[in-house]
Each structure stands twice: as C-alpha cells, then as structure tokens.
Amino acid sequence: MNNHLPKLDVQFSVFLANKPGLLARVLHQLAAGRINIVALSMMDSSEHGVLRLIAEEPRRVRAALQALDVPAAESEVLTAVLPNRPGALADVIERLAGEHINVQYAYCTAGAPGGRALGVFKVSNPSRAIQVLAERKPKRDMKVSIRAERARRK
Questions:
Q1: Among candidate residues 131, 89, 127, the one with its CA nearest the CA of residue 109
Q2: Domain boundary among 75, 93, 126
Q3: Interhelix angle 22-32/58-68, nearest 10 degrees
Q4: What is the pLDDT of residues 5-33, one digit of tens each?
C-alpha cells in the first residue's frame, strides 16, 4: 500500500475556553493514553479556542476527550503527503480548484515521513479530491522526483 496517497481522516475539533492550562490538560490526557498526534492546529476567537487534531487512533482520541468532558466535534478531512518544497501546496490547491473543489480550510506540517509535508484539507467534495490528487501529473511530478533524486545523491 502506498502511504503517500491522499486519504480521508477523522479530525477532532475541541472547543476550549481561552484559559491557561486547558490545552496542556487535553494534550496530557492524549499523551497518557499513548495517542500519537499526526497533525494539530490551534486557533482562537474572542469566545474560545479551537484545537483541530488528527491522531493515529480516532477511537482512542474520542474516549480521551469524553473522559475530559470537553466539547468536541468530528469531521472528515483529506490528508495528503506532499513534497516539502516551495510551491507544493500551491500545486495541490490549483489542482483542486481546477476541478471546482472548494478548500474550506487547510493546514500543513513538515513532519511527514521521508522529509515530506502533510497537508490537511477540509474540502467540498472529499471523494473527488482524492481522485484528483491521486492522479499523477507527469510534468510536475517528474520535476519533483528528479529534484528528490538529486538531493539524495548529494
């Protein structure tokens, strides 16, 4: 199985009051359950903060959040491993836009295996987005492969 293909993941949105220590409490609860966080984003508003996270075992995340009795919601997001290079995210967004797929929000991390980046996307049509991103685009993808091969040789 190719781990670099785009896929659907469960994202948890945890609603926290803007108070010191609440984020730490949630993260310690996840750590105590030996839950590995794959991606995380934190944003705030005047009323509360929203912690968005993806972890390896959603079932265990759900149980940990219920034990803390914090308000949380689950949603389906698209995750895709990207080359860690300038323009990679722009290429993905352009491909989705070309198929009239709206990106409602996105965040990325550069900690994916092999020095790659992981993109998290909330999109209007997840199943079509997976198809679009799974299709190779020879011209652009070839450039990425050549650059990666040259970097490995150095």
A1: 89
A2: 75
A3: 130
A4: 799 999 999 999 988 999 999 999 999 99
The pTM of the whole model exceeds 0.90: no
The CATH number of residue 100's host domain is 3.30.2130.10
Round to whole Å and give the CA distance between 55 and 40: 9
Query: Which positions ≥6 away from 49 have C-beta within 8 Å?
Result: 15, 16, 17, 18, 22, 23, 42, 43
Structure tokens at 15: 């609603």
Domain residues for the domain of 24 are 10-75
Q: Which two tokens stand for residue 113?
A: 């295996």
Q: What is the pLDDT of residues 69-86, one digit of tens each?
A: 999 999 999 999 998 889
Same domain, 58 and 93: no
**Cβ 89 vs Cβ 112: under 8 Å:** no
Q: What mean pLDDT do residues 92-121 have?
A: 90
The answer to whether 103 touches 123, Cβ cutoff 8 Å, is yes
